[in-house]
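Give me the fold.
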Amino acid sequence: MAPPGGRARSWNPARHKVCFQNDMQTTCGSVVIDGDEQLVMMPENKTAEFYKYLRGYGFSFTIDCRGFCEDNIFCFPESENTEKLKLIVSRFGLNHA
């Protein structure tokens, strides 16, 4: 089922090689540029909350779902304002309950 305003895609490891880093924690909740996309990796237990948080900002994005209890990738086109995206993502409380 696709989320409203976006479409879910299956995980493609070749497409998002940037997410296979030794220290995944530093990548989670950060904006990473990969080719023509801006990516934000989010832990599975924060995906729905982060999706709801982003809805009010008018971003265009898709979500790559890796599977049950896995990190998920929010994919933004390069046309999105990177500085605005970084600011909004940094304000999301990744560590709060």
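The two ends are 26 Å apart (CA to CA).
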